C-alpha cells in the first residue's frame, strides 16, 4: 500500500536477526538512521574543529556558531551551574536536530517520529534531572512541589498539581516531539498522495501545499529540536537552582 | 468545469481516506512493540557513542579554538593600543623637535640679521665720517678759494681791461688807475657774483 501515509513509519529488519537471550536487537532502518545521524554529526563537528584558524572557514564557523548557540541557551536558562551538562545537551540537540532533518529527505526514516525513541530520551532526562536535584538539594528538592507565597488552604491542591505536572514532564516532552514529527510527515505523505491521484489536472494545488509544508516541516524540525533542548535546560535549571 | 474539478477532488479524497482506513489493520507502526527493544538498544548505543565522542574529543577542541581566538583578538587589540600610544608619543616628539628646530632657525636668522645690520651700520658710520671729513676739507678749500678769488679776478680784470684799452686806444694806461676802478666795481657787485 504505497499511498498509506503511515507506511513510512514502518520499522523493518536490515540484515540478519540478532537475538540476545530471546531479546530481538536486530539492526533496523531506525538503527541505520540513528547511526547515519551520529556519523554525520561527528564528521561535521570533527571537520569544524580540526583546523584552528583565527578566521574560521565555513564548516568551522557553523560548528562554532552551534557551539555558542547551545552554550548561550544553557547559560540563559540554567545559569553557570549548567555548564557541566553542556556536552549532553549539545549532543541531545544535535541528535534530535539531525534525526528530524534527515527525516525530511525522501525515502528517509524519521527516528524521532517513534514514541519509544523520544520517550527513552525524555525518561532518561527526567530520571537524570531528578537524581541531580536530589543529589544537589537532598530532600529539600521536594520543596519544588511547594511554591512559596501560596495560601495554606490551597496548598494540598497545589502540591498535587505540581507533582502531576512534574511526573508528566517525560510524557509531554516525548509526545510533543513524536507527535510533531509524525503529524508533519503524515501530512506531507497525504498531500504527496493527492498529487499522484489528482494527476496533471488537479495535482498542482496539493503540490503547492506540499512545497509549503516542506518549508514548514524544516522549520518544525529545527524548532522541535530546540524546544526539546531548551525544556531539558529548564528542567535542569529547576534541579540546579531551587527557586521555590 | 469547476464543479467537475471539485467533484473529482472530493471523490479522490474519499477514496484516499478509505484506502487509509482500509489499511487500518496495520495501525500506527509506532505502537507495534516488535522493534521497541531494538530501537532502545540502538538509541543508547548510537547516542552514547555520539555523546562520548562529542564531549570528550570534539567539544573541548571547539571551545579551545573559541578561547584561543578570543585571547588572540584581545592580545591583538592590546598591542594595537600600545602601538597607537607609541605612535602618538612619536608624533609628539616629532612635533617638539620640529618646533625646536624652527625656533632655532628663527634665532639663527635673527642673530644673523642683527649682525649684518650692525655691520652695515658700522660701515655706514665709517663712510659717513670719511665723507664728513672730506666735506669739511672741501668746504675749507672753498672758503679759502672764495677768499683768494676776488683778488685774482681783480688782477685778471685789470690785465684784461689794460689789454683792451691798449687795443682800443693804442696807449698804455697806468695799471694802478685801472685796478682802482676794477676794485671799485668789484666791491659794488660783490653780492651779485658770490651768492652767499
Short characterization:
The complex is a heterodimer of chains A (about 240) and B (about 200). Chain A has about 240 residues and is mostly helical.
Which chains make the largest contact?
A-B, 61 and 48 residues
Helix/strand/pairing category of chain A? mainly alpha
Number of strands of chain A: 2
Helix content of chain B: over 70%
What value does the average pLDDT of chain A take?
A: 89
Radius of gyration of chain A, whole Å: 22 Å
* Number of distinct helices of chain B: 4
What is the rounded distance between the termini of chain A? 54 Å
Q: Judging from the principal axes of the Cα atoms, what is the shape of chain B? A: rod-shaped
Structure classification of chain B: mainly alpha
Structural summary, described in words:
The complex is a heterodimer of chains A (244) and B (196). With 244 residues, chain A is mostly helical. Chain A has one domain (7-240). Chain A has helices at 29-50, 58-77, 86-102, 115-137, 155-167, 169-202, 204-240; strands at 19-20, 23-24. A two-stranded antiparallel sheet of chain A has the order 1-2. The longest helix of chain A has 37 residues, at 204-240. The mean pLDDT of chain A is 89. With 196 residues, chain B is an all-alpha fold. In chain B, 88% of the residues lie in helices and 0% in strands. Chain B contains 4 helices and no strands. Chain B has helices at 2-22, 36-169, 175-188, 190-193. The longest helix of chain B has 134 residues, at 36-169. The termini of chain B are far apart.
Amino acid at each position: 500500500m504505497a499511498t498509506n501515509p503511515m507506511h513510512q513509519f514502518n520499522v523493518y529488519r536490515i540484515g540478519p536477526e540478532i537475538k540476545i537471550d530471546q531479546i530481538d536487537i536486530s539492526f533496523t532502518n531506525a538503527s541505520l538512521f540513528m547511526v547515519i545521524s551520529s556519523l554525520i554529526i561527528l564528521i561535521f563537528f570533527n571537520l569544524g574543529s580540526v583546523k584552528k584558524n583565527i578566521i574560521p572557514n565555513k564548516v568551522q564557523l557553523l560548528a562554532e556558531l552551534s557551539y555558542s548557540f547551545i552554550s548561550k541557551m544553557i547559560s540563559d536558562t540554567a545559569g553557570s551551574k549548567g555548564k557541566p551538562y553542556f556536552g549532553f545537551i549539545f549532543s541531545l540537540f544535535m541528535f534530535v536536530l539531525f534525526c528530524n532533518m534527515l527525516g525530511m529527505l525522501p525515502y528517509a526514516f524519521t527516528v524521532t517520529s517513534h514514541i519509544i525513541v523520544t520517550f527513552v530520551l525524555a525518561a532518561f532526562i527526567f530520571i537524570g534531572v531528578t537524581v541531580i536535584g536530589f543529589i544537589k538539594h537532598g530532600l529539600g528538592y521536594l520543596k519544588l512541589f511547594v511554591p512559596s507565597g501560596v495560601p495554606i488552604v490551597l496548598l494540598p491542591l497545589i502540591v498535587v498539581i505540581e507533582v502531576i505536572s512534574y511526573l508528566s514532564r517525560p510524557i509531554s516532552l516525548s509526545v510533543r516531539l513524536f507527535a510533531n514529527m509524525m503529524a508533519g510527515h503524515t501530512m506531507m505523505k497525504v498531500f504527496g498522495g493527492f498529487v499522484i491521484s489528482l494527476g496533471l489536472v488537479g495535482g498542482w494545488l496539493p503540490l503547492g501545499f506540499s512545497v509549503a509544508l516542506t518549508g514548514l516541516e524544516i522549520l518544525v524540525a529545527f524548532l522541535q529540536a530546540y524546544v526539546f533542548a531548551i525544556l531539558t535546560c529548564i528542567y535542569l535549571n529547576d534541579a540546579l537552582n531551587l527557586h521555590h | 468545469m469547476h464543479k467537475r474539478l471539485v467533484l473529482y477532488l472530493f471523490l479522490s479524497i474519499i477514496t484516499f481516506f478509505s484506502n487509509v482506513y482500509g489499511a487500518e489493520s496495520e495501525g500506527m507502526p509506532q505502537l507495534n512493540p516488535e522493534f521497541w527493544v531494538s530501537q532502545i538498544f540502538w538509541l543508547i548505543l548510537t547516542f552514547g557513542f555520539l555523546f562520548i565522542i562529542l564531549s570528550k574529543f570534539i567539544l573541548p577542541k571547539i571551545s579551545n579554538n573559541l578561547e584561543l581566538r578570543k585571547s588572540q583578538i584581545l592580545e591583538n587589540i592590546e598591542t594595537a593600543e600600545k602601538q597607537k600610544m607609541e605612535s602618538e608619543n612619536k608624533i609628539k616628539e616629532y612635533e617638539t623637535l620640529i618646533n625646536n628646530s624652527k625656533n632655532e632657525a628663527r634665532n639663527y636668522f635673527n642673530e644673523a640679521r642683527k649682525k649684518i645690520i650692525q655691520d652695515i651700520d658700522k660701515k655706514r658710520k665709517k663712510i659717513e665720517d670719511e665723507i664728513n671729513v672730506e666735506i669739511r676739507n672741501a668746504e675749507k678749500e672753498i672758503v679759502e678759494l672764495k677768499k683768494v678769488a676776488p683778488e685774482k679776478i681783480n688782477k685778471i680784470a685789470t690785465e684784461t681791461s689794460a689789454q683792451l684799452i691798449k687795443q682800443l686806444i693804442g696807449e698804455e694806461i697806468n695799471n694802478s688807475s685801472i685796478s682802482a676802478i676794477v676794485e671799485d666795481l668789484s666791491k659794488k657787485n660783490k653780492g651779485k657774483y658770490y651768492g652767499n
